[in-house]
Amino acid sequence: MKTITKRILLLVAVACIFLAVVALLMFSMLTNANEYALKSVNKHIYDSNILTNAGDIVDVNGKVMATTSDGERIYNESSSIRTSLLHIIGDDKGFISGGIQDTFSSELSGYSILYGINRESSNTLNLTLDADLCAYAYEQLKPYKGTIAVCNYKTGELVCIATSPSYDMYNKPSDIDTNEKYDGVYINRFYGGLYTPGSVLKVVTAMSAVENISDIYTRTFKCEGSYTLSDGGKIVCNDTHGTISFEQALNRSCNVAFAMIAVELGEEKLNAAFSAAGLDKSHTTSDRIRSYAGSFGANAESSVTDIGWSGVGQSTTLVNPYAFLTYMCAIANGGVCNEPYFISSVTNADGKYVYRTKAVDSGINISSTTASTLKAMLRSTVSNYYGDYRFGNLTICGKTGTAERDNEKPHAWFAGFSADEEFPYAVVAVLENSGNGLTYAGTAASNVLQKLYKTVN
Ligand SMILES: [Zn+2]
Fold it and tell me: Which residue, of 45, 102, 262, 446, is most buried by count of CB atoms within 10 Å of its CB?
């Protein structure tokens, strides 16, 4: 009798342990379900690390960027579209980090916690990007490295992103790792680039002046081509501008006037403006991408000369193109804006939403008065100085930058937006080591905006 009781107790104990282990395993499976199903060793989706069950990725016009057929991932038939969207879509070999078929693989594969992976019908990921415009923008960057992006400043929808260099994943260059023209080829420079801004940064210095120097509009500045600061350092201008107003100083991008303004403001107020413009932070987008944080070139230890050069966008100041485009969107949109994004939704075979993007506030909060003042100054910079004819007579507000580099050609910048409420788009363009801001970045940005204008009208 004793032996039988012992055996029963032992069986109960073993059964209890077994049930506990099963319960633990089930809990772990449910809470880590995505991970279990999407581990690249899981042959249901990945075959030798190649996506084999992901759904379609389509652009704003329904053009298919990537699809799956007979277990094989197939990309758009156009080499120029494949090349220009490589960093957005990602490749199936894992060279490009942050591509959406990786970061949205769970949504794309139609994975469900209840039913697992749906092999019959996977989901469709819908972009706000116009693939043809991306391909056109990529052409405008050639032969330089750099980036161009265009965003609807009312909504935050990006219609165009291009980053150079890139490559066609179906014809990957054999010298990609040795030829310097492919330096940084795996980086999406729109999010991951950090550049000396040059004179586009004068918009930030102007913003601080508007908010901190009450008589700035009645001041005049005398530019004799260069200016010696109190510590003996010298600021050199791009021209001899003579006696000019604050607005004329921005129009003509006078380094002397802006260095004087920067020194008067001091590094603390300049850093505050840089921060208010969202340029010192890493932005987290709804597309699951983080932009690189920029940095202002002057701090409490800086010399007067460093503050002067930082205020005109030189010194060690670094700016990220995504962040600067967001800043332009905020100025265009009355002082606030959403974080730019390019994924609008994921839908299932029935057209129902599996995922829908919620606009995220950028955190930029400039007063509407300051925003409209800056808007007017950027408008006069184009209409009085660059010439509207350069922008196909669109109503453009903007600022160029020609960021000087030691022993290299300058980085050309253009940042701006259309003042037309019916065409609410902001643009940023950076062409590395190309030359003059207006000539290179201004032309590239103008071409892309004009192409977009023809598309939407
Ligand atoms: Zn000057």
Answer: 262
